[in-house]
Amino acid sequence: TALVRFDDVGMRYDGGAEVLHGVSFSLAPGSYHFLTGPSGAGKSTLLRLLYLAQRPTAGQISLFGRDVRELGRADRARMRQRMGVVFQDFRLLPHLSVFDNVALPLRILKAPEAEIRRDVGELLAWVGLGEHEAASPATLSGGQQQRLAIARAVVVRPRLLLADEPTGNLDAEMGLKLMHLFEELNKLGTTIVIATHDTTLLARFRHPRLVLTEGRLKTMPPAPPPRGPV
Ligand code: ADP
Ligand code: ADP
């Protein structure tokens, strides 16, 4: 059974035009999709619907096999705990240190503090933020904040990882390193949806595409491989 299912989903913001129309797709457990489409096509809106951060104005969404309309607030919160999200604006918690931002999802799940110390320490070192554990997120560069947001999203090994342009602020080498991290997570069973404009990444990692054009969604095969030496 599908991990995510959209049936004829529509979204209209208050007083605005319809941003998504008749969007239907499903994501098998363990699948990996890129979400593409021009700016303004509705990619962020689709990710927010997946994260239960907003309610669709038409159609039906099922997550983890349950119709989200039937969920209460506590159920929605529990589902969000099984998801990792990298928002375009990062949404780091400014009053918490770098370490505590990443530790928070583990603390919510009541992981033992020794395990938190170890896992968060390793992950921060791996994304190149080991020296910044005690810093405030506001003191980090844009690329460092993006790495921090990614570390926070993956630390619990979520069932579903959603990321909005997660490599947009990173140099090519760090971007590739994090794309390889997503590949590893996917091999361990995490279902992934990554919104990206980056045609190099699309051609290199070759996952099926959810393509949004003016609010309509088409599922397409992976982008063709790059020509010539990479
Ligand atoms: P993308 O991520 O593909 O750039 P978005 O989902 O951000 O697309 O936006 C799709 C459309 O919805 C745009 O026209 C945008 O202006 C509009 N939109 C997005 N968020 C809101 C909002 N909170 N209120 C009103 N309109 C919005
Ligand atoms: P609340 O808004 O009651 O504090 P949440 O924080 O769980 O509850 O909800 C965040 C957002 O999700 C709200 O804007 C709410 O409208 C939206 N939402 C509520 N119910 C659903 C649902 N069944 N599916 C998707 N989004 C929902």
UniProtKB/TrEMBL annotation:
| Entry keywords, A to Z | ATP-binding, Cell cycle, Cell division, Cell membrane, Membrane, Nucleotide-binding, Transport
Query: Would the keyword Zinc turn up in this protein's UniProt record?
Result: no
Q: Name one GO molecular function term.
A: ATP hydrolysis activity
Subcellular location(s) per record: Cell inner membrane; Cell membrane
GO cellular component, alphabetical, reads:
plasma membrane
Question: InterPro entries given for it?
Answer: AAA+_ATPase, ABC_transporter-like_ATP-bd, ABC_transporter-like_CS, ABC_transpr_LolD-like, Cell_div_FtsE, MacB-like_ATP-bd, P-loop_NTPase
Pfam families assigned: ABC_tran
Q: How does the UniProt record describe the way this protein sits in the membrane?
A: Peripheral membrane protein
Q: Which PROSITE patterns match?
A: ABC_TRANSPORTER_1 (PS00211), ABC_TRANSPORTER_2 (PS50893)
Which residue intervals define the domain ABC transporter in the entry?
4-230
> Which SUPFAM superfamilies does the UniProt entry name for this protein?
P-loop containing nucleoside triphosphate hydrolases
- GO BP terms, alphabetized: cell division
Q: Which family does it belong to?
A: Belongs to the ABC transporter superfamily.
The record's function comment reads: Part of the ABC transporter FtsEX involved in cellular division. Important for assembly or stability of the septal ring.
Q: How does it assemble?
A: Homodimer. Forms a membrane-associated complex with FtsX.
UniProt-recorded name of the protein:
Cell division ATP-binding protein FtsE
